[in-house]
Amino acid sequence: MGTPRETRAEQAEEIVSRLEEAYPDSTISLRYTNRLELLIAVILSAQCTDERVNTETEHLFEKYDGPEAYANVPEEELAEDLNSITYYNSKAGYITESCQQILEDHDGEVPDTMEELTELPGVGRKTANVVLQHGHDVVEGIVVDTHVQRLSRRLGLTEEERPEKIEQELMEIVPEGYWQQFTHLCIDHGRAICAARSAECDECVLADICPSEKGDSEVDLASGDPW
């Protein structure tokens, strides 16, 4: 079992420092060319891999250009275009309704505030944070996806389980200048080393400060289950 730094703030700073060195090119992996494509890609990425989303959006973004195209296409046709994406029927509905709302309430432009974005169908705080950060260069929170949720608990940064609560605690301890990058670093490390079912603690640059490290710890703090 690793020994965390004395305070959670010190732990967070050390985690960021080490992961930055390990993943110097860490950034968003979804592919897009404008704010609407970003919004659609993030909606599609819920409970689906970015790799799968990128494969599907390659042809999707060629077929549909602008909110009018998505707002006017029959929902069944859009769903068929997305049929390899998890929950594609629901996501097709979210995209159609969001684009209709963008046209009616926002002059065809993707909104640039948390309040307006989260009023769009299928858009919660996590999705809104991604769109604000990468579409509008507005950083007012931390994106808490499954990797951030898992690593934050394993590394002793929070004991909360709900993403909204985790975000609030992380915003208190992660330096504000790293709010955006923290997510990308956690995603890269979660994919490469600290996966949900197969944490490779022997290869982890954080093992010596991780209270979930499998060498001595009997419990995965992310799930509360024994290793």
Quick overview:
The chain has 227 residues and is mostly helical. The protein has 2 domains: 8-27 and 143-226, Helix-hairpin-Helix base-excision DNA repair enzymes (C-terminal) (Endonuclease Iii, domain 2, Orthogonal Bundle); 35-135, Hypothetical protein, domain 2 (Endonuclease III, domain 1), CATH 1.10.340.30.
General description of the model:
Belongs to the Nth/MutY family. Residues 115-134 form the Helix-hairpin-helix DNA-binding motif class domain. This is Endonuclease III. The protein has 227 residues and is mainly alpha-helical. The chain folds into 2 domains: 8-27 and 143-226, Endonuclease Iii, domain 2; 35-135, Orthogonal Bundle (Endonuclease III, domain 1). It has helices at 8-22, 35-45, 50-63, 67-72, 75-81, 88-105, 114-117, 125-135, 146-154, 163-173, 179-192, and strands at 219-220, 225-226. A two-stranded antiparallel ribbon has the order 1-2.
Low-confidence stretches: none
The CATH topology of the largest domain is Endonuclease Iii, domain 2
Domain count: 2
CATH superfamily of the largest domain: Helix-hairpin-Helix base-excision DNA repair enzymes (C-terminal)
Features:
two-stranded antiparallel ribbon, mainly alpha, 227 residues, Endonuclease Iii, domain 2
Secondary structure: elements and pairs:
Blueprint: H1 8-22, H2 35-45, H3 50-63, H4 67-72, H5 75-81, H6 88-105, H7 114-117, H8 125-135, H9 146-154, H10 163-173, H11 179-192, E1 219-220, E2 225-226
Antiparallel strand pairs: 1-2
Helix pairs in contact: 2-3, 2-8, 5-6, 9-11
